[in-house]
Design a protein that fits this description.
The two termini are about 30 Å apart. About 30% of the residues lie in helices and about 25% in strands. The longest helix has 13 residues, at about 75-85. It is built from five helices and five strands. By secondary structure, the chain is of the alpha+beta class. Strand 4 (about 100-110), helix 5 and strand 5 (about 135-140) form a beta-alpha-beta unit.
């Protein structure tokens, strides 16, 4: 069951030697945040999240978060939005990939378990055609270790 802002999806572009401005120009939208190569600093946070971020400290990161008004939508609805967004920007995807960009959608969900996700074939086929992987991170909001920090 999706509760208020229990799911947030974001479009990520990771790359070495690719300025965030290039990604912004290619997609023709402003990012929610960017981090230039070598500028990523890790502060305290959930252990699993900090570990994942540390793997990409030598890369440039460009992130476009889903709009706040869409965060109450299901993960399926949010992924359908990104599929439509990227479908309209196929040329940008080609340009960024040629420049070494890795593009993916991350979905962060905080729910009580179990969590059921039903991805329609039209959605998975659309993302597959665009060669966009989806990484889903699901946290049990009742897990006391979730709030542990380094």
């Amino acid at each position: 069951m999706v509760t208020k802002e229990s799911c947030k999806t974001s479009l990520y572009v990771w790359a070495r030697s690719l300025a965030p401005e290039v990604v912004t120009k290619a997609f023709e939208v402003e990012p929610s945040r960017t981090i230039a190569e070598g500028k990523l600093t890790i502060k305290k946070g959930p252990r699993k999240v900090v570990s994942a971020i540390k793997q990409n400290t030598d890369m440039t990161m460009w992130v476009r978060e889903i709009e706040k008004r869409r965060r109450t939508q299901t993960v399926e609805q949010q992924l359908a939005y990104w599929c439509e967004f990227l479908e309209a920007r196929k040329a940008a995807l080609r340009t960024l990939r040629k420049a070494g960009g890795e593009i993916r959608i991350d979905a962060f969900m905080m729910e009580s378990m179990p969590l059921f996700i039903d991805l329609p074939t039209v959605l998975t086929a659309g993302l597959g055609k665009l060669k966009i992987p989806v990484k889903m991170t699901i946290y049990d909001i009742n897990d006391p270790q979730l709030l542990e920090t380094n």
